[in-house]
Protein 1
Amino acid sequence: MRFAANIPTAAGASEYSTLAFCDSISWEKQRSFARATEAAGFDGLGVPDHLLAGDGATTECFTTLTALAGATESVTLFPKTVNNELRHGPLLAKMAAEVDNVSDGRLKLGMGAGWKADEALAYGYDWPDAPERLRAMEETIELTKRLWTEEEVDYDGDYYQLDGAACRPRPRQDPRPPIMVGGGGEEFTLRIAAKHADEWNFWGPTDVMAHKLDVLRSHCETYDTAFDDIDISWFARCIVRETEAEVEAILDEVPRFRDPDPDDPMASYNNLIGTPEQLVAELEPYAELGVDEVVLEFVDFPEPTGVELFAEEVVPAFS
């Protein structure tokens, strides 16, 4: 099982904020945490894609990824996940190819259709309904694979049209970087993942994950694609300390983790909260389910205490 950590791009007061000890985001905090995470032995770093989140600074995803490429040496770098509506699909393919090059072949492209309408509208973007956003995302994935591997690309889609487009330099990875699709929509997202993805990312308890995997497997049968070739990635927020008393002290700072209201988005997650022994027990059923990667957002960011303790006492149980 691989382990990755989120590098937050926003903090401060908002309904989305879950960082108890970070009032604002800065590059210095992101860089320090990324280096501590890599030094602890984590496999990857994920970067959310937002324009406005929280009431303070929000760093742009691809700029942050590019900076992290220069600040780290070995970890996989990936957007978790790109909001396809915020960038022209062919340009996104070009940007991602360059990130793969400057990182010496460490990019994984995480794709999504976005969900936070207010930031898109604030920046003057149109905000189509979810099915239309997902169809556009699928076209982006299709043309990205071709731009990364073909000399010139003509493409006539509903959302993008290309005429002799070339992506040079190509990505460093051969034949191309992996593509991860995030989300659990059973009619569109999981169908797209079955048809196009190298990896699929979602969240929630094991019964939810098991059901979604059954749906994904069914879509793979429809498209005659290999379900076993798709890596399974799971996301959660994490609070870990040596003792239960220390965990409770952090929960006092973020009480929404104790028992979120049913309408709180947090209620759909199964976050990892407890001592190292408790977290190992919580993760074992996910390993049995076939989860290949766990992506964590550490609630004590930018302090490295949680990520270092997790790497020292939880990761070895899954090596």
Protein 2
Amino acid sequence: MIAGSDPQTELDRLTRWQDWAPAITPGEYQARLAKARALIGAAGADALVVNAGPSLTYFTGVRWSPTERLVALVLPLAGEPVIVCPAFERGSLEAELRIAADLALWEEDEDPVAAACARLGPNARLALDPWLAAGHARRFMDAVATTLDGAPVIDGCRMVKSAAELALMQQAKAMTLEVHKAAARILAPGIRASEVIRFIDQAHRALGASGSYFCAVQFGHATAYPHGLPYDQELEDDQLVLIDTGCRVEGYHSDITRTYAFGRVEPLIAETWALEKEAQAAAFAAVKPGVPCEEIDAAARRVLEAGGLGPDYALPGLPHRTGHGIGLAIHEPAYLVRGDKTPLEPGMCFSNEPMIVYPERFGVRLEDHFYVTQDGARWFTEPQVALDRPFA
């Protein structure tokens, strides 16, 4: 499972994923718009503005990163959706657009917010995407009578995943798990973290993804820093290895972490690894529909505190939340953290990663993802088996 191979041998083993999950259908896009309209009405708004980014992808299929130029969806309670877009980008927009919509095109010397509001009227009540840039949001506030927080509408749609979304996420996570297995096999004394990162990107591409969405490779004491240190390490015998990576399939994310021993490690690391696994299992077992998100975080922390760590965010212990929602964004609502009282519902998807950190010494993070069912939680990927066996 660990070491014994080389990058080229492992890349030669990998071929394009055979069982590719179907893309989101036109009917599902229409259902999303219908649900959003119901939530817009319930919020007392006349329309919703959705900024470029994962929410725009969710409602329209358009994968567009936000920039200073406004690209947005204006979804009214009735009538055609409107896409606001720079006129010179029309062709690129239409190539990805998966819904019927009117286009409000604006030239570089025109006001895009005026184009967005042209059909709404000055007395409109407008729900704004919280991802909207402050400058754009302020201009919308000046253009209409009332603005509201659009998060309840957007999160109310995106937090609960459909069967099609779960299938796309399952594929992404299964692909990344295969990449993790291959990465473990190429480890050898002297290999640099940057070499492993490059291999992981190539391996994701070999399976059909557009490379790694992100990748962190940490050895030894660097594992004590949840997002690593800003220099390239060389792997040594008898070090702890932490690899965290993911890819996207049709925009849906994976995000999996494995922490394992390359050789022999000190007894405290082995004890910490076992406690981490226990905390991850406790968080998983606490999942039931109706349970508030914060209780999952509390379940993991109870295990750690019983083991003498913490409490709260004190170190040694867990320095961050137990988990985050995941879907078209790698981190999205809801969150498994104290204070998030969102009740769990079937179809919600989360990471489960109650990392343990011993400052400046080492850290252990086991991260797998689950989705909520009527009966509890179900893993997308099987958790790590043992400190020296990273895969089932």
Protein 3
Amino acid sequence: MSQERPLVSASGLVKRYGDFTAVDGIDFEVHPGEVFGLLGPNGAGKSSTMRMISCVSKPSAGELRMFGMDAATDGPRIRSRIGVCPQQDTLDPELSLEQNLTVFARYFGIPKAVARTRAAELLGFVQLQDRAAAKVDSLSGGMKRRLSIARAMINDPGLLLLDEPTTGLDPQARHLLWERLDQLRRRGVTLVLTTHYMDEAEQLCDRLVIVDHGRIVAAGTPGALIAGHCTKEVLELRFAGDTSGVAASLTGIGVRTETLPDRVLVYADDGDAAATAVHTRGIGARSALVRRAGLEDVFLHLTGRSLGDE
């Protein structure tokens, strides 16, 4: 981990909308060259935090510093040094892929010749060079997300912000986008991303915070969070009917259980042994699956709900 000054430093960060507090006094740092994740369900405060980091929304309280500057007073200077890939598609459908990049470059005062060179390089990077002259409307959802990332990189930013970068994409498109983001990581680009996909966070993030109701409930590397809050394995039991009374019959199997509407989770260091114990007791599960613990299990343990809950 780099010992350089953090690119982003938040202390007691708060965002209010009238009487509603979306972000409730959070502290975190983002270091140069790392991929930092904001993980949590919809409405947890992730997007509000990203809007403050992107300097389009001022903090209601607390301090947010980026590149050594105060986000509350140095917004224009900070914005010139960051790239933003928003959750919603903001591409211009009337322009070609190349034009989407070169026109956007004007906002940063980039000379036309430099903009064209960068556009060609970035379209190659996101594997869209063969579609440079095509209109945006001809692209698939995954292609549009890759183009949005290319556009966000046009000013050679020191920090790239990605808000739910793979929402709505099919698995193949998601994995291709992951590969491109991993390439950026290996180039030394600092990334901050929000997601409610647990596998995405485990795949991409060096460090992350889990937020719920505007507060940070856990922080660390994905591996450390899983090891610190979960057993090694999880036994997932699915039942044909109501699961509300099942937990009592599982007493003594595993370390703990979590009851969800469609399944019961048994946390154990040896999932196969737990499955054998369930079978021995004659507990009639429709199916049983042993898997390794993940970040969704961490969130469920800390908040009592799944990361995907609305």
